Amino acid sequence: MIYKLAIAGMFVAGAAAQHVGMQTEEVHLKMPIKKCIGGACVPEATVATIDSNWRWTHKIDTTYNCYTGDAWNETFCATPEECTANCGIDGVSASDWKATYGITGDSAGAINISFVTNGTNGVNVGARMYLLETEDKYKNFQLLNKEFTFDVDASNLPCGVNGALYFVEMDQDGGKAKFETNEAGAKYGTGYCDAQCPHDLKWINGEANSKDWNGTEGTAVGRGHYGTCCAELDIWEANNISTQMTVHGCTTEGQHRCEGVECGDNDKGERFKGVCDKDGCDYNPYRVGAVDFYGPGDKFAVNSLKPMTVVTQFKTADGTDTGDLVEMSRFYIQDGKKIENPAVSYGKYTSLTDEMCTAQKSEFGDYDDFTVKGGMKAMGEAMGRGMQLVLSLWDDIEVGMIWLDAIDPAPKKGEEPGPGDRRGTCSQDSGKPEYVEKNSPHAHVIYSDIKYGAFGSTYLDKLSPSERAKEEAAFAAKAPKEHKHAKSATKSAKKSACPSGSLSECIGLCPAVPASAYKTCVSECASRCVDGAAAWKGAPADALEAKLAAVKAKEQWLTMEEKAATMLENELQKEIASSK
């Protein structure tokens, strides 16, 4: 994704470096999310940081710019080595979030990103942010065999503007440990990468990407010699006309600095020769034939002029957190009603699978780089290693977002678009930055109430009472086939110390709904598992006390499985008392 940054004077927001300046103290924006298990969702105290490309870059210990407009300062950055040594990015103050970047939050999990902000230091366009779980580490998500849910209001996003929420496999610390010249790290939003292997990152691997830098006149964007690649999982790319989800695997693991052919540069005709699947496999309702599914107004199944809840589930071949990814499915909730994804025009597919993607590539005549680069399995492997969440709003300086909401590729004069070329109803020119920034500067997107957890655990509170009853009944009806582990966990507990070998694994087998089944299953796991009290009966008091201390120290139980931890702690306390 190529983002257009801020344009300004001296204190320009729109440049990046790896050293840290001391002109402004860094303040992060509170944006808590929730992890859900069973009927309980536990808050996590995550905060947002803005990408280093949007930050003021200046010579260390001075206020002189290292980067202005679309160019590096020739004095401070005569070579990449000198630039790395001379320059640093600075902090974002509490007032900068709104005044410079047009971003506000309610500290309760909602964040509003504005499109064009006229600040005292220049004009800022869009933003890219990440969640931190600690001051120096991005929140790491491992979503195999889980679901991810969020609310979004895209009503104020016109043609050519993209409110994108997605995951990338960048380093959790922003590359700080790998590269000694990177003194900023995740705290200051470093380390970004995606499947397009973007060249517009001003710093990659802790070094200035100033070699062969070519600026784009009238913007703060340029291209350097290197690109930065990694797997990309696009949960949500949308405006109020079109929406799309896409998987992009890579043949490399984690963040990878590329040069030459491995970047897969479009302008060199090497798109499919690079290390990442740039096309990916996508599901855009309009593109696959459901032209009345998503859009502005009540005539659409999902009305983009109203807030909605977006639920995405990641199903594995064996139903475990370590299995191969086989399906990425989607449904929506709006006005308390669950709305399923529609089937495509070329089959009964409603989700992303290897079979669906192969059929789509054939139907639309697209080159199948998805299969070449490993398909769903490759995407799942990246998810298993852990990915970081990106929250963004952007316009497209390369092709005007036609791949999302117009016709791509544009047909030749006198010819009709080919199968799959229509992505939405926008005109071919509506997404040109010079047009959309002038005519829709007040566009904005609101993301809120982010949750993740076991299937069925994150969205029931969004349903009306009648819809919730139907959903719980449907879930219970699937139990014999899809959730037989709920009964087997209880049954096998009578035969063995712990189903699956550990408390956390046992609880992971428990169904999220109905709540009564979850509670029963967790209770059995807590009393039977090898990490539980039953395995320690008859042990000396000091051993039991040591075990209790270990249980209390397990952070994941205190946050993710609080109820189960409490049950186990109570059991251990009883055993200690009876042993003394």
CA radius of gyration is: 25 Å
Largest sheet: 10 strands, antiparallel
> Which CATH architecture of the largest domain is right?
Distorted Sandwich
Q: Would you tell me the structural class of the helices and strands? A: alpha+beta
The total of helices stands at 15
CATH topology of the largest domain: 1,4-Beta-D-Glucan Cellobiohydrolase I, Chain A
Percentage beta strand? 25-35%
Which regions have little confidence, pLDDT < 50, spanning 5+ residues?
Answer: 6-17, 482-496, 530-540, 549-561
Which CATH top level class of the largest domain fits?
A: Mainly Beta
Shape verdict: globular
Number of domains: 2
Mean pLDDT: 87
Helix amount: 10-25%
Provide the descriptors you would attach to this structure in a database record.
alpha+beta; 1,4-Beta-D-Glucan Cellobiohydrolase I, Chain A; 2 domains; 580 residues; 9-stranded mixed beta sheet
Structure report:
It is a single chain. The protein has 580 residues and is α+β, with helices and mostly antiparallel strands. The chain has two domains: 7-453, Glycoside hydrolase, family 7, domain (1,4-Beta-D-Glucan Cellobiohydrolase I, Chain A, Distorted Sandwich); 482-579, no CATH class. The strands form nine sheets. Strands 3, 6, 15, 16, 17, 19, 25, 26, 28 and 34 form a ten-stranded antiparallel sheet that branches. Helix 10 packs parallel to helix 12, helix 12 (515-528) runs parallel beside helix 15 (562-579) and helix 13 runs antiparallel to helix 15 (562-579). It starts with 6 loop residues before the first strand and ends with a helix.
